[in-house]
Amino acid sequence: MQVYLPIAEVSVNAFLLFGLGGIVGLLSGLFGVGGGFLITPLLFFIGIPPVVAVATGANQVVASSVSAVLAHLKRKTVDLRMGTVLLVGGIMGSALGIWVFNILSRQGQIDVVVQLSYVVFLGLIGALMFQESLRTLRRSRAGPVAPIKRHQHLWVHNLPFKVKFRTSGLYISVIPPLMVGLLVGVLAAIMGVGGGFIMVPAMIYLLGMPTKVVIGTSLFQIIFVTGFTTFMHAATNNSVDLMLALFLIIGGVVGAQIGSQFAARLKAEQLRILLALLVLGVCLKLALDLLIEPSELYSARPVGRF
Amino acid sequence: MRWLALLTLLFLPQTTLAEEVVAGLSQDSISITANFDGSDLLIYGAVKREEPIPQDSLLDVIITVEGPSEPVVVRRKSRTMGIWVNTSGVEIDRAPSFYAVATSRPLADILSQTEDLRRRISTRQMIRSVGAPTEITDSAAFTEALIRLREREALYVLRENSVELKADTLFSTDFDLPADLIEGDYRTRIFLLRDKKLVASGETSIDVRKVGLERWLFDLSREEPVIYGLLAIIIALVAGWAASAAFRLIRN
Fold first, then answer.
1. The whole model's pTM is what?
2. What percent of chain A has pLDDT over 90?
3. Low-confidence ranges of chain B (pLDDT < 70)
4. Hey, is the C-beta of A295 within 8 angstroms of any chain B C-beta?
5. How far apart are CA A67 and CA B237, in angstroms?
6. Do the strands B164-166 and B170-177 form a parallel or antiparallel pair, or are they unpaired?
7. Whole-complex ipTM
């Protein structure tokens, strides 16, 4: 069954879209990632114009994050105050990102910037995840080791404007969380992702937040940042395709349910290696597209369409 | 859904009164619905004459279908710092979004270059590129690239020998319109030729429109982008909440 996407102005197979949404939903259910970093490049591969893929990808992340954060709110693993600070930085970053996006888009360089960002970040995160899961696998074989030392006194803790974050048990300056939020907001707008895969390590290693509140807090602020990104793309570029979003969201919702059912039964470390390999695979494909001489050097894009 | 619209086209004689075109289309409008999967278009007609069929030359027919024209930016990649990036671009002033040509015999055998230039019949003539930036010396390569790219996507099509001509009077041809059509007026032209020269011609247009949900979403996104953006967010919020609620129901 073909479906004509009114904004992208291309016709795609509806089951393919359900499938893509479903696979990404499955992953988010299994690993607790938003899945934006996978859906956007997958949409490039099936021929959706990059501008539309980025804007609509952000819209799908809103849905999957809402679905996931509700469970976290119930378990009280969301630091709302920290989330709000990250969010303020995030919205400023998102506005900045949209501005950069529109400039690059006009100069015809947006595709390469989006692709490069993906290659760099997917490569980095994929490699880190792969290394970490290998280490956990080895450690679980070797037996217990000394716990990692927490609450180190970093330079981050000497900045002014200190605020108490009770849920996280932190008393730190608001500047580092604002900067983290800003960076993730810029990336969210340019790459069409929630940024959870960058936000989570930053919260643990830069801000020193306890792991149990990290995912919920990250998801909480991602909803607002991607929501804002979606809105800004819709308002300034008219590039959100609701028809496309609808298919992805429905597929994603079903996939997420199946994913969370599976997650309880499967071994976490082995799954994480699989996810790392998948992320690296997508990264490799995008990197090769940039490095190998393309068979067609020319590309055409109508002015005033996507 | 497929209904016949017999459009009688009245054509002013171009060069001579001896032969005229009377033609019809299988449909005079195409609706892009949510499950639009391309469309077949049958164009048929007859040659109207007051005199007997001329025997000294062969009659040939060329039929074209043309999507709305628009400016297009063609960019070329080259290797910069190890990666392939768009480095040069030419803006082509007007190029049809879709262009199909059907002929009764090979195009080169039935159409002279002067007639092609005058009537803009071949794909190359349909693309108008006025000026390229001064640093680009090979602007023709960009036009060629546009034609190549669109031929590959079946947006530019040349189908020689596909117009069926019966008794030098009745003609018909079929066009496959692709699923990736854009909206607008699609102009169809019919040319009758003898000795590579135009004898008569006529044109009509097909209205291609998004309808229903497609129409509504597209209009909303352009006319009320703020409401459209809010709608996108609300749908995502509701879907996310519904998913979590449904999940809880299933588990309990």
1. 0.77
2. 7
3. 1-17, 132
4. no
5. 8
6. antiparallel
7. 0.79
B243/A62 Cβ within 8 A: no
Is the model more confident about B20 or about A30?
B20
**What tokens appear for B216 in the block?**
């509504």
Given a contact cutoff of 8 angstroms between Cβ atoms, the answer to whether A92 and A185 are in contact is yes
- Which of A:40-99 have CB within 8 Å of B? 59-60, 62-68, 70-71
The answer to whether A70 contacts B241, with C-beta atoms less than 8 Å apart, is yes
Query: B14 in helix, strand or coil?
Result: coil
Under DSSP, the state recorded for A7 is T
Listed by start position, the domains of chain A span: 2-142+152-291
Of A34-48, A62-76, A197-211, B213-227, highest mean pLDDT: B213-227
Do A247 and A17 touch, CB atoms closer than 8 A? yes
pLDDT in tens, A269-284: 677 787 788 888 888 9
Decide if B244 and A67 are in contact by the 8 Å CB cutoff: yes
A210 C-beta neighbours (distance < 10 Å), count: 16
**Tokens linked to A288:** 């090769």
- Look at phi and psi of residue A195 and say left if phi exceeds 0, alpha if psi is from -120 to 50, else beta: left
